[in-house]
Amino acid sequence: MRPANHSHPPRPAATVNGRPVWRGLPVPWVARWTGEIQENLALRAALLDDKLWLTLSDALSTHPLGPRQVLGSERDELGLFWLPDLDAPGTGEPQFAGLHTGRLRASMLDRICQVCGVPFPSKEPVTFLDSAYLNDPNTGRTQAPTESHRPYITPTPPTCRSCIPVAMQMCPHNRGKEASRIIVSAHRYRPFAAKGDLYGIHKGVVEEEERGAVVQISDPRVSRLVVKQVYVQVIKYTTEPVTARASSRPSQ
Ligand SMILES: [Zn+2]
User: Fold this and answer.
1) How far is the CA of 28 from the centre of ligand 1 (A)?
2) Averaged in consecutive runs of 10 residues, what is the pLDDT profile of the chain (252 residues)?
3) 158 C-alpha vs ligand 1 centroid, how far in Å?
4) Which pLDDT does position 22 carry in this prediction?
5) Who's near 80: CB < 8 A, 6+ residues apart?
6) What is the Å distance from ligand 1's center to 191 Cα?
7) Is 212 helix (H, G, I), strand (E, B) or coil?
8) How many angstroms is it from 183 CA to the middle of ligand 1?
């Protein structure tokens, strides 16, 4: 399912204060490491009672699918079938642009900072370092956190206040963009949509309908999605600008 991208066994990376670093850069908690990629995964899909059953197995295995190899029933409480990654942060090389599906899910839905991996205190709002210019994944219309505090949709995992300076300085997509970033303190938000590869059945054959499809959680098609990302709708929130102080380089 995924091509091999390293030819030697992954090795653990260096750590500073227990946190993985790579070539001097702190690695966000949600980043996926090459040692966490499940190789030789075979996705099998079958239609049963008009419901698509997705299973993942080791493509090199010659054994028939046993219960432990069938991952298709392992859906989360939202009914989402997530593409599973191994759990071995710090092994191999970090993929700064690739997110670990398990940690991404936990960050988005269990209130955990995407940078440091520390949960938000239960009584405090969750902070998102978001773009002031977002597009609604369904309509393509611009929809962003605003002064009017209308609900908006974001794919960005939350970032705690102490990690916002690191995220502004170290992430290439944030650096120098204080004017187009905004800090959102979310008092209420909910899972809204999932993004992944959508499967369907046509003339008796299961096939991929759409790669990178965004499907609302309330849409029955979400059961036919191999999920890689989740969007939340932020309902109750306040906003503040990313100030020079908030984005200043942390002490080294
Ligand atoms: Zn943090």
Assistant:
1) 9
2) 45 68 86 85 64 62 42 71 85 89 95 96 94 65 69 92 90 83 94 91 80 93 89 92 64 42
3) 9
4) 84
5) 194, 217, 222, 225, 227, 230
6) 21
7) strand
8) 14
Evaluate the CA torsion angle 128, 28, 164, 113 in order and state its sign: positive
Quote the tokens at residue 189: 């938000």
In the reported structure, the alpha carbon of residue 160 is separated from the centroid of ligand 1 by a whole-number distance in angstroms of: 4
**The token pair that represents 186 in the structure block:** 């979310």
Residue keyed to tokens 């992430």:
171
Determine the distance separating the centroid of ligand 1 and the alpha carbon of 93, expressed in angstroms: 21
Write the CB contacts of 109 (distance below 8 Å, at least 6 apart in sequence). Answer: 76, 78, 191, 230, 232
Tokens of 115: 């940078």
Which residues hold their Cβ within 5 A of ligand 1, which is an ion? 113, 115-116, 160, 163
Q: Ligand 1 center to residue 205 CA distance, Å? A: 45
CA distance between the termini of the chain: 41
